[in-house]
Amino acid sequence: MDEQEHWQVDGGGSVAYQRYLVPLVTARWAVVLVDRAALRAGERVLDVACGTGVVARIAAQRVGPGGYVTAVDINPEMLAVGRSLTPVAGAEIEWRDGSALDLPLPDGAFDVVLCQLGLQFFANRPTALSEMRRVVSPGGRLVASVYGPIEQNPANHALSVALDRRVAPGASLAKRSEHALADASELAELVATAGFADVSVATETITIDYDSPADFVRIQLTATPLARLFAVTPAAERERIMREVTTDVQAALARYTDSNGLHFPQVAHHVHATHG
Fold first, then answer.
1. Are 133 and 271 in contact (CB under 8 A)?
2. Residue 3 pLDDT > 90, yes or no?
3. Predicted TM-score (pTM) of this structure
4. What is the average per-residue pLDDT within 217-245?
């Protein structure tokens, strides 16, 4: 794993990520992000830390065939999955292998830079934001999202507590790191310090749906970096731990569970700024 971006999935995890997490979680937030960007026909858009490209594909539809979308990620397996998907109607998407800390792109090349749920994972956030500002044209804008406090995201909190109890103290680090930039004022200050102007932060809540708490645990432990916890664990031991974690999570999320499945709130901050 490259030290520049901490949240990475390995091997077949990119396929599982696209199959499960994208429709259940990231596609939901992608619509919110792109709506906040208010993209216009013909605009040039950059999707930083694009993963398998859910934001890039929505952006391509919004800017239309006269626009242009570039999707950058440090994980070649994520990019490979993105390239393999059926192209959407609209702008062409260029897939680029690269780090947010050193974007392989010219100055002022984009009208809009988008970054969904990625900024919290960058080892050097000021550098990443400076790079985003560098590639935005004068008057262009940045729209980025990060998760809010883990205590306001009950499923992630319940899973983290269960992992620390059932696997080992600190086993939840990868999950807790998703909330590493949860203070809205810290987020706004970080973006302003990078030279952006007109910085504003909006906090939003959506409801995420899984078939059951067990389904949530299974997907989290196979389609995210948490899968590494069991990379060398014998199958029987892995199954035992997963059952124990699932039992704990089911108990913690009982208030969010009914006969139709698991439905829990998820909170994220969206920051909007312009090239100052």
1. no
2. no
3. 0.93
4. 91
Spatial CA neighbour of 108 closest among 68, 140, 64:
140
Cα torsion at 174, 180, 181, 183 (round to 10°)? 140
Distance CA 74, CA 257 (A): 36
Question: How, if at all, do strands 136-147 and 196-210 pair?
Answer: unpaired
Q: What is the DSSP string of the chain?
A: --TTB-----TTHHHHIIIIIIIIIIHHHHHHHHHHHT--TT-EEEEET-TT-HHHHHHHHHH-TTSEEEEEES-HHHHHHHHHSPPPSSSEEEEEE--TTS-SS-TT-EEEEEEES-GGGBS-HHHHHHHHHHHEEEEEEEEEEEE--GGGSHHHHHHHHHHHHHT-TTTTHHHHGGGTT--HHHHHHHHHHTTEEEEEEEEEEEEEEES-HHHHHHHHTTSSGGGGGGTTS-HHHHHHHHHHHHHHHHHHTGGGEETTEEEEEEEEEEEEEEE-
User: How does pLDDT run across 62-77, given as a tens digit for each residue?
Assistant: 999 999 999 999 999 9
Residue 215: CB atoms within 10 A of its CB come to: 16
How far is residue 53's CA from residue 57's CA, in Å, rounded to a whole number?
Answer: 6
Question: What are the pLDDT digits (tens) for 4-49?
Answer: 344 444 446 789 999 999 999 999 999 999 999 999 999 999 999 9
The tokens of 244 are what? 């124990």
CA dist 75 and 9 (Å) reads 8
C-alpha 274/C-alpha 127 separation (Å) is 17
Tokens of 146: 């990060």
The CATH code belonging to domain 13-150+179-209+262-275 is 3.40.50.150
